[in-house]
Design goal:
The protein has 16 helices and 14 strands. With about 425 residues, the chain is an alpha/beta fold. The protein folds into 2 domains: about 190 residues, Glycogen Phosphorylase B (Rossmann fold, 3-Layer(aba) Sandwich); about 220 residues, Glycogen Phosphorylase B (Rossmann fold), CATH 3.40.50. The strands form 3 sheets. Strands 3-2-1-4-5-6 form a 6-stranded parallel beta sheet, with helices on both faces. The protein has a 6-stranded parallel beta sheet with strand order 11-10-7-12-13-14, sandwiched between helices. The protein has a two-stranded antiparallel sheet with strand order 8-9. The longest helix is centred in the C-terminal third of the chain and has 19 residues. About 10% of the residues have low confidence.
């Protein structure tokens, strides 16, 4: 008996490759799965790892009317040829084009998952255009799944659709493989080697950010806060500077004087270098580039280490002490789940997804968006209050395992597919 056909689409293949890792292979036991996205190394890796058929089809992330029409036509032809029972899209542009093309082609079940909304952070004409695009998307879809309750509330608040909205399991598009994201998977030898490579001392306190280095992720505020953190160990609310103050965090002595910054490795901790900011992710220069001042600080500050995109981030989490994720908007950020599973507390902004994963004061700190002072205060507290830090660290992994284990999400998605397939 032939399996029903499922087509999963995203604007760029990186989204399918990383956001849905393992899920397509799981679903292929029940459906003939076809992955459609831009043609690059991520699509090729996806095909090999998940053992599913892939179809390269370019879609533009930004608004590009002529190219968008061409992509829409190609999707329509593909859907007419493949005749899938279900088309399921993620990411904004793939969602809009796939839902329109799916409706035109007569695909019976057309699902879109909102992993994050762009328009709440925009204003004016651009916001109106983005809202209209999402309304058209929802009009053409048969079913809408917000990734988290925050996204669901925004869709309702902005009256994007009157269709029922359902969050699968506890949220997130893929859950997390907590066996894979475990500090036990990284040996002490690997940690020591990576620290040596990155010039990170045994007594260093390391804040880590993982994601695209763009303004929308709060990198300008993060770099600014970290710059001031290094030169001041005082509580932010007192606005005072304490020089040469040593404190003990996580059984290590941390010095926060910045009188002798250095970009070189030293066998012994050097004043001013005991705090590190580790940036893991690609620097994007086209969409939402960083401020010039931020770029210069990243390049010239010896305490900021930027390693670019990394296929496996576990070793970087393993040598870090706290995730800092000051993004302006998210759907349900995998990075916060991954860091928590690796035992790291997190400082996050009060945005969709992040404020569902992190419970303020239990496994991290929630701060206001676009606020360097709040970020500085939170980083300062995490670094200086060892008892508070230890409590957050102790809760970090258990709070992820209990709510976001991967197989729970996969089974939830599969059950939805089967239910919808039977209903048509």
């Amino acid at each position: 008996m032939l399996q029903p056909k499922l087509i999963r689409t995203s604007t760029v293949a990186m989204s399918l490759d990383f956001l849905l890792k393992g899920q397509l292979a799981f679903l292929s036991g029940h459906f003939e799965v076809v992955a459609v996205s831009g043609d690059d190394e991520h699509l090729k890796r996806l095909a090999e790892r998940e053992q599913v058929r892939t179809v390269p089809l370019q879609m533009q992330r930004n608004i590009s009317p002529l190219k968008d029409l061409l992509s829409l036509w190609k999707l329509y032809l593909l859907f007419k040829k493949e005749k899938p029972q279900i088309v399921h899209s993620i990411t904004p542009k793939a969602g809009l084009l796939s839902m329109i093309a799916g409706k035109m082609a007569g695909v019976p079940v057309r699902i879109h998952t909102f992993t994050g909304l762009i328009f709440p952070s925009k204003t004016g004409l651009l916001q109106k255009i983005l809202i209209l695009m999402d309304k058209v998307l929802c009009c053409c879809a048969t079913h809408i799944y917000p990734e988290g309750h925050g996204v669901k509330n925004d869709l309702i608040q902005y009256k994007i659709t009157s269709k029922p909205l359902k969050v699968i399991a506890n949220g997130n598009v893929n859950g997390i493989d907590t066996a894979y994201f475990s500090k036990e998977k990284v040996s002490v030898q690997e940690q020591q080697a990576l620290k040596k490579e990155l010039c990170i001392g045994e007594n260093d306190f390391v804040f880590i950010f993982v994601g695209r280095l763009v303004g929308d992720k709060g990198i300008n505020e993060l770099v600014n806060a970290f710059k001031h953190l290094v030169v001041s160990s005082s509580a932010v609310e007192n606005q005072s500077v304490v020089e040469n103050e040593s404190i003990v965090v996580n059984n290590r002595q941390i010095t926060t004087d910045n009188s002798q910054p250095t970009a070189h490795c030293h066998p012994e901790p050097v004043e001013g270098s005991n705090l590190k900011l580790l940036l893991v992710g690609p620097l994007e220069t086209e969409l939402d580039p960083l401020q010039t001042e931020t770029l210069k600080e990243i390049e010239n500050n010896p305490n900021i280490i930027s390693v670019g995109f990394q296929k496996d981030v576990r070793s970087y989490f393993s040598i870090s002490d706290c995730l800092v994720f000051p993004s302006y908007r998210e759907g349900f950020p995998n990075v916060v789940l991954q860091a928590g599973a690796m035992g790291l507390p997190a400082i996050v902004t009060d945005i969709n997804g992040s404020n569902e994963i992190i419970v303020d004061g239990d496994n991290g700190i929630i701060i206001s968006v676009k606020n360097s002072n709040s970020l500085l205060e939170a980083m300062n507290k995490i670094m200086k209050d060892s008892q508070f830090y230890s409590q957050l660290q102790m809760n970090a992994r258990p709070m992820i395992v209990s709510r976001y284990e991967q197989k729970v999400v996969w089974e939830g998605i599969l059950n939805e597919y089967k239910k919808l397939e039977k209903s048509v």
